[in-house]
Amino acid sequence: MKYFRENIEKAKGYKPGIQPLQTDDVVKLNTNENPYPPSPVVLQAVKAVSPDQLRRYPDPLANAFRKAAAEVNDLSADNIICCNGADELLTIAFRAFCDRKHPVAYPVPTYSLYPVLANLQNCSAIEIPFDSEFNLPAKLTGTGAALTIVCNPNAPTATIVSVNELASLADETAGVLLLDEAYVDFAEENCAALAKNFDNVIILRSMSKGYSLAGIRFGYAIANPDLIAGLMKVKDSYNVDALAIAAATAAIKDRSYFKETIEKVKKERKRLTEKLRTLEFEVPDSFTNFLLAKSRTYKASEIYDKLTQRSIYVRYFDSPGLNDKLRITVGTSEQNNKLLSALKEILSE
Ligand SMILES: Cc1ncc(COP(=O)(O)O)c(C=O)c1O
For a disulfide at 153, which of 97, 160, 253, 277, Cβ 3.0-4.6 Å? Predict the structure, then answer.
């Protein structure tokens, strides 16, 4: 179409996982949602929102959430910016730091939204391959990129790089280092301290995974106050709505429910990993709420098709390094059992 900028015209756009309309009898393990509901206090908080709060614009800074998130992360509110899902902060970062003369760099394979955003922003993307064990590539320093992104734990590999290694990377990076911690709630350590110690580090968090709130769209980022103030200039004035602020604030405050849910996912993650290994899948240890599994005996695309025919949705990426693997979200024990019996059936065909 003649109306679009050339790069938009040529762009393929981001392809999200299938969201089936009919959810009865479907085992949905394809978009890394949390299989457990959000804390009951979330619904109470949403119900308590008054008509007057809906009539007015929301707090542009979402200060109630910033205060709560600052306490959880042992920082102050001016270290925090709220966003309409972590994805929005990625868009804000590309707009803030990248253009034709200011490239982005990131290790691959990783979150497939990064190249999409680079293309929209018309900046070049320097992609540095991970080694076969997904160690941080040494070449990531010295790329000269204005923005370097490391997804940690990484999607879709489920692997993690240590805080010490990322501190060294922050030290050696001239531009901004954005650490996408969308899945960090399922790991044992996080990089929040780096945002205190380095003036070029942004830590990105999502409420979609650990807090079971993918439906409300809420995330936040942590950085030094000067970086936060700059990012604030780029965001929409009212980027998070009153209902989302109420829900996300209630969720992050309920520490015991959060911890309980994370432990349940980790327990199932361990069991599913072990069971898949007995079915001859290679599965690296996961630090997320999903597994990247490679069958030693069967083609990934065929397993994917056969699971889909049985209304069991997992994720298949037809791209180099990933097209022999399946990304499987850790579900409830019942969902995981359905997946495992279907796999047993398929692999014996
Ligand atoms: C690595 C990574 N970063 C960010 C996001 C976006 O999260 P949100 O739902 O908060 O926009 C996702 C979502 O799947 C993700 O996988």
Answer: 160
